[in-house]
């Protein structure tokens, strides 16, 4: 069913692209039968197709920075070479589609036609939630960036501070949950198939993740937002059946991890994460990496030069790719936000004194959900894992926070975007930069530098944003919540 809907909606999208391509020739090429108003279900499907894309949300690069992954031949990124990665494609792609959904369901001239694909309010609310998620991924990579004036056809939008963006996203997510009505559900929803309760849980859960991210820079706001989200209408993700995930049909629409390895072999699971998993008897190791014929995950050493990486792979033909092959099929499931991550965020909030929830209960439940999510749960093995000295909660608050934060880092795998963010915020685990680093500081990057187009196309606003960064527009400058 999902594949059929994707094909149908992308067919509409192709029509729209063709109509747009003829717009520069006045009326001479006007087709009276062409679709001049976007089909909002097609826009939604297109935006959700790469909801979890490693390339789109930066998970590959971020996963290299937080040492989930290691490069096997072209090793520049894990040696911290300085890229200039523009965000242009994000604004022109999914974000623009989502804004178009909002615009067409708001404009009196188009809202009746748009309502053929679900009530106006429901479509707007869903688009606001997905748009908020997209902006969160972006601002956590760059910091200050266009937000309030973005997607408004302004050629030189101002850069909002990351604090302003976070405040805006908290507001968007809360209002969107309240905006859902009892009308028809949005067509084109390939994530939850129109289940608006699950979208409410996603929005509230995303607020929990965001709130804990403020634990050092603004704990007062973080606590208030966490408590508000925890008690919000619609609930939170607390069971794996409510996980936000994309189930790909395969064929024309393969999973992003399938595409990562389709004819390529650029990445392996790193020795950093694998050693952590084996040290604690963590059964997730066989889901996170590809076991060899003997059932062992053979990690790729992190941070090698190109020559050393090629020599290693030549000498270890059974090196392990990222994820068990089951999770790299064209028709595999990719996770966006899960019950495990939510329970572990609740464990940290409890350890911080933000809630009266039991830290140990939230912690154990989060890890149980993670093992079940990855299909490795066995009660006896899980008990052994939980009693491991590296996992078992100690008696001091520092030890408790370190253990909880370590498992948050582990459980976000392979989501490098969130893994890198959690490491930057907490310093857990204690990652060591590669000694082969090629950047001037030799340190793990803390942010993306702004794209090369910005100084030319939006010079005044770019310069204003750079002036707020300690040390300027570098990988070492810290974003707002990175304390």
TrEMBL record:
Give the signal peptide as a residue range, or say none if absent: 1-19
Alphabetically list the UniProt keywords. Lipoprotein, Signal
State whether keyword Cell inner membrane applies: no
Any one Pfam family match given in the protein's UniProt record, by short name: SusD-like_2
Under the heading PROSITE patterns, the entry gives:
PROKAR_LIPOPROTEIN (PS51257)
Instruction: Tell me the Gene3D superfamilies matching this sequence.
Output: 1.25.40.390
Q: What is this protein called?
A: SusD/RagB family nutrient-binding outer membrane lipoprotein
């Amino acid at each position: 069913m999902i594949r059929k809907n994707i094909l149908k909606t992308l067919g509409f999208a192709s029509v729209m692209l063709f109509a747009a391509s003829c717009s520069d020739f006045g009326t001479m090429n006007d087709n009276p039968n062409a679709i001049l108003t976007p089909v909002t279900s097609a826009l939604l499907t297109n935006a959700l197709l790469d909801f979890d894309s490693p390339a789109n949300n930066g998970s590959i690069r971020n996963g290299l920075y937080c040492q989930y992954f290691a490069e096997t031949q072209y090793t520049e990124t894990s040696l911290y070479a300085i890229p200039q990665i523009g965000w242009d494609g994000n604004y022109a792609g999914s974000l623009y589609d989502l804004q178009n959904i909002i615009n067409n369901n708001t404009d009196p001239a188009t809202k009746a036609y748009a309502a053929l694909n679900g009530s106006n309010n429901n479509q707007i609310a869903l688009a606001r939630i997905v748009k908020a998620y997209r902006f969160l991924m972006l601002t956590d990579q760059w910091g200050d960036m266009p937000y309030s004036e973005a997607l408004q056809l302004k050629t030189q939008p101002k850069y909002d501070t990351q604090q302003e963006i976070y405040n805006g996203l908290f507001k968007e997510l809360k209002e969107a949950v309240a905006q859902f009505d009892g009308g028809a559900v949005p067509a084109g929803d390939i994530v939850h198939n129109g289940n608006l309760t699950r979208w409410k849980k996603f929005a509230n859960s995303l607020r929990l993740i965001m709130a804990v991210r403020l634990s050092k820079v603004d704990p007062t706001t973080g606590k208030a937002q966490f408590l508000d989200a925890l008690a919000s209408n619609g609930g939170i993700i607390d069971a794996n059946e409510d996980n936000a995930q994309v189930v790909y049909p395969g064929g024309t629409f393969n999973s992003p991890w399938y595409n990562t390895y389709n004819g390529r072999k650029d990445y392996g699971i790193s020795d950093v994460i694998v050693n952590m998993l084996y040290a604690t008897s963590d059964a997730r190791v066989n889901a996170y990496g590809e076991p060899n014929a003997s059932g062992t995950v053979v990690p790729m050493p992190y941070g090698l030069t190109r020559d050393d990486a090629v020599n290693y792979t030549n000498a270890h033909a059974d090196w392990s790719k990222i994820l068990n092959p089951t999770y790299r099929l064209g028709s595999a499931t990719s996770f966006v936000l899960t019950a495990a991550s939510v329970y572990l965020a609740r464990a940290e909030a409890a350890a911080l004194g933000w809630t009266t929830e039991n830290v140990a209960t939230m912690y154990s439940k989060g890890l149980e959900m993670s093992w079940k999510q990855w299909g490795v749960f066995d009660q006896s093995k899980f008990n052994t894992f939980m009693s491991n000295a590296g996992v078992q909660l100690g008696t001091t608050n520092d030890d408790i926070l370190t253990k909880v934060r370590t498992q948050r880092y582990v459980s976000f795998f392979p989501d490098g975007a969130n893994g890198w963010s959690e490491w930057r915020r907490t310093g857990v685990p204690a990652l060591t930069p590669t000694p082969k680093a090629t950047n001037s500081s030799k340190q793990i990057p803390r942010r993306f530098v702004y794209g090369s187009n910005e100084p030319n196309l939006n010079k005044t606003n770019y310069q204003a944003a750079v002036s707020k960064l300690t040390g300027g527009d570098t990988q070492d400058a810290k974003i707002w919540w990175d304390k």
